[in-house]
Amino acid sequence: MVMTILEARVDPSKWEAMRQSYTTGGTKLPLQMVQTFLLQSVSDPTIWRMASVWKSRSALEEYRESVEAPGGVLFFRHVGAEPTLSIFDVAAHATADPSSDSSV
Questions:
Q1: How many domains, the chain?
Q2: Which CATH number fits the domain that encloses residue 60?
Q3: What is the pTM of this model?
Q4: Which of 47-74 are b and which e, b meaning 16 or more Cβ less than 10 Å from the residue's Cβ?
Q5: How far apart are CA 3 and CA 33, in angstroms?
Protein backbone atom coordinates (compact mmCIF):
# COMPACT_ATOMS: atom_id res chain seq x y z
CA MET A 1 0.00 0.00 0.00
CA VAL A 2 0.94 3.61 -0.55
CA MET A 3 -0.33 6.74 1.18
CA THR A 4 -0.41 10.19 -0.34
CA ILE A 5 -0.78 13.33 1.71
CA LEU A 6 -1.80 16.63 0.19
CA GLU A 7 -1.31 19.61 2.49
CA ALA A 8 -2.24 23.28 2.20
CA ARG A 9 -3.09 26.32 4.28
CA VAL A 10 -6.74 27.16 3.84
CA ASP A 11 -8.34 30.50 4.63
CA PRO A 12 -10.87 30.15 7.51
CA SER A 13 -13.61 31.55 5.28
CA LYS A 14 -13.23 28.42 3.09
CA TRP A 15 -13.38 25.76 5.83
CA GLU A 16 -17.09 25.06 5.49
CA ALA A 17 -16.75 24.83 1.71
CA MET A 18 -13.95 22.28 2.26
CA ARG A 19 -16.14 20.12 4.49
CA GLN A 20 -19.14 20.32 2.18
CA SER A 21 -17.14 19.61 -0.95
CA TYR A 22 -15.43 16.64 0.68
CA THR A 23 -18.71 15.24 2.01
CA THR A 24 -20.35 15.37 -1.40
CA GLY A 25 -17.34 14.22 -3.43
CA GLY A 26 -15.44 12.06 -0.93
CA THR A 27 -17.49 8.94 -1.64
CA LYS A 28 -16.54 8.90 -5.34
CA LEU A 29 -13.11 7.32 -5.00
CA PRO A 30 -11.00 6.20 -7.94
CA LEU A 31 -10.88 2.41 -8.32
CA GLN A 32 -7.17 2.46 -7.39
CA MET A 33 -7.84 4.12 -4.00
CA VAL A 34 -8.72 2.23 -0.81
CA GLN A 35 -9.81 5.15 1.40
CA THR A 36 -9.26 8.81 2.09
CA PHE A 37 -9.41 11.20 5.05
CA LEU A 38 -9.81 14.97 5.30
CA LEU A 39 -7.75 16.27 8.22
CA GLN A 40 -7.53 19.64 9.97
CA SER A 41 -4.60 20.41 12.26
CA VAL A 42 -5.41 20.90 15.94
CA SER A 43 -2.34 23.06 16.62
CA ASP A 44 -2.82 25.21 13.49
CA PRO A 45 -6.37 24.94 12.11
CA THR A 46 -5.40 26.67 8.86
CA ILE A 47 -3.43 23.55 7.89
CA TRP A 48 -5.54 20.94 6.11
CA ARG A 49 -4.47 17.57 4.78
CA MET A 50 -6.02 14.93 2.60
CA ALA A 51 -4.52 11.52 3.36
CA SER A 52 -5.35 8.80 0.84
CA VAL A 53 -4.50 5.11 0.87
CA TRP A 54 -3.85 3.48 -2.49
CA LYS A 55 -3.79 -0.23 -3.38
CA SER A 56 -0.17 -0.01 -4.57
CA ARG A 57 2.40 2.36 -6.02
CA SER A 58 1.51 1.13 -9.51
CA ALA A 59 -2.20 1.80 -8.81
CA LEU A 60 -1.32 5.36 -7.77
CA GLU A 61 0.77 5.87 -10.91
CA GLU A 62 -2.02 4.41 -13.07
CA TYR A 63 -4.46 6.93 -11.62
CA ARG A 64 -2.06 9.88 -11.95
CA GLU A 65 -1.45 9.04 -15.61
CA SER A 66 -5.21 8.81 -16.31
CA VAL A 67 -6.06 12.38 -15.22
CA GLU A 68 -4.83 15.83 -16.13
CA ALA A 69 -4.89 16.92 -12.48
CA PRO A 70 -5.60 14.60 -9.52
CA GLY A 71 -8.95 15.07 -7.81
CA GLY A 72 -7.36 15.94 -4.47
CA VAL A 73 -5.35 18.75 -6.02
CA LEU A 74 -8.49 20.09 -7.71
CA PHE A 75 -10.31 19.83 -4.38
CA PHE A 76 -7.80 22.17 -2.72
CA ARG A 77 -7.64 24.49 -5.71
CA HIS A 78 -11.44 24.84 -5.54
CA VAL A 79 -10.99 26.72 -2.24
CA GLY A 80 -8.01 28.76 -3.46
CA ALA A 81 -5.24 26.64 -1.94
CA GLU A 82 -2.29 25.00 -3.72
CA PRO A 83 -1.35 21.75 -1.95
CA THR A 84 2.03 20.07 -1.64
CA LEU A 85 2.22 16.31 -2.19
CA SER A 86 4.05 13.70 -0.11
CA ILE A 87 4.07 9.98 -0.96
CA PHE A 88 4.74 7.27 1.64
CA ASP A 89 5.10 3.51 1.42
CA VAL A 90 2.95 1.92 4.11
CA ALA A 91 5.51 -0.05 6.13
CA ALA A 92 2.97 -1.58 8.53
CA HIS A 93 -0.78 -1.44 9.02
CA ALA A 94 -3.19 -2.34 11.83
CA THR A 95 -6.94 -2.11 12.33
CA ALA A 96 -9.14 -2.62 15.35
CA ASP A 97 -10.83 -5.99 15.77
CA PRO A 98 -14.56 -5.16 15.74
CA SER A 99 -15.32 -8.30 17.79
CA SER A 100 -13.25 -7.08 20.74
CA ASP A 101 -15.44 -4.35 22.21
CA SER A 102 -13.59 -3.06 25.28
CA SER A 103 -16.63 -1.10 26.50
CA VAL A 104 -18.40 -4.27 27.70
A1: 1
A2: 3.30.70.100
A3: 0.87
A4: ebbbbbbbbeeebbeebeeeeeebbbbe
A5: 10
